[in-house]
UniProtKB/TrEMBL annotation:
PANTHER family: MACROCIN O-METHYLTRANSFERASE. InterPro entries: SAM-dependent_MTases_sf (IPR029063), TylF_MeTrfase (IPR008884). Keywords: Antibiotic biosynthesis, Magnesium, Metal-binding, Methyltransferase, S-adenosyl-L-methionine, Transferase. Belongs to the methyltransferase TylF/MycF family. GO terms for molecular function: metal ion binding; methyltransferase activity. This is Macrocin O-methyltransferase. It comes from the Bacteria. GO terms for biological process: antibiotic biosynthetic process; methylation. The lineage of its organism: Bacteria, Bacillati, Actinomycetota, Actinomycetes, Streptosporangiales.
């Protein structure tokens, strides 16, 4: 566990990344329940903030902290990655946890198209076609340069942060990631989830964690369940909040 000063830093970092300090309003979308700042909504990652650098909420940031600190305490080898990063907040927090613990031998991988969501054509998953998240790319598309600038705002852009740009089907098969301690998926769609699992799950070390941000979305859940069944993954799934889950690989 970090000392008191480090814990205060990480708590402030979470509050800043979610912007519950200044309480920015959410973007008006099909998915936001209340079109004004609501603390419980922000805590649970149920809105798309106008200003905040993450939309995953405090409870999912707490989960990232728990998973990263656990692998550090238990000596589980490997780096940290998120696939689907939006403005970069979750990855910024991963880097902040490493900094708070003085860890210099692990990387944070930031994987995204940096172009928003792919077009869901007639050949795509039924739920993905219904969601049509690419219709919201005016909000969801965030450039790599903007994400890098966001890291720099927190003094956390350094050589322990690596970027993987492209659609996951193209970028992940040859990604230079050797071993992972924490794999966090936030790609929303069936193909994005499956591509991430197929290419990165084999790199997760025993004792490492897999976090699924979008388990509430039926197509994401379908991909996870199909992958687990096909690959005999039997570790129990644990809830983080109403939308996301995680599991830990057996040591």
């Amino acid at each position: 566990m970090p000392d008191r000063q480090s814990e205060l830093y990480l708590n402030l970092l979470k509050k800043t990344l979610t912007n519950i300090v200044y309480e920015d309003a959410p973007n008006r979308t099909r998915f936001v329940k209340k079109p004004y700042f609501d603390l419980e909504q922000r805590m649970n990652g149920e809105d798309w903030p106008v200003t905040a650098h993450t939309m995953i909420g405090m409870r999912r940031l707490d989960n990232i902290q728990e998973c990263v600190e656990t692998v550090l305490a238990d000596g589980v080898p490997g780096d940290l990655i998120e696939t689907g990063v939006w403005r970069g907040g979750a990855c910024i927090f991963m880097r902040g946890v490493l900094a708070a613990h003085g860890v210099t031998d692990r990387l944070v991988w930031v994987a995204d198209s940096f172009e928003g969501m792919p077009h869901t054509d007639d050949d795509g998953n039924v739920t993905d076609k219904w969601l049509k998240l690419d219709d919201d790319n005016d909000i969801l598309a965030v450039s790599q340069e903007t994400v890098q600038e966001n890291f720099a705002r927190y003094d956390l852009l350094d050589d322990q942060v690596r970027f993987i740009k492209g659609w996951f089907c193209d970028s992940l098969p040859n990604a230079p990631v050797e071993r992972l301690a924490v794999l966090r998926l936030d790609g929303d769609l069936y193909d994005s989830t499956m591509d991430s699992l197929v290419n990165l799950y084999p790199k997760v070390a025993p004792g490492g964690f897999v976090i699924i941000d979008d388990f509430v979305i039926p197509s994401c859940r379908q991909a996870v369940e199909e992958f687990r069944a096909k690959n005999d993954v039997t570790e129990p799934i644990r809830e983080i909040d109403n939308e996301s889950v995680y599991w830990r690989l057996d040591s």
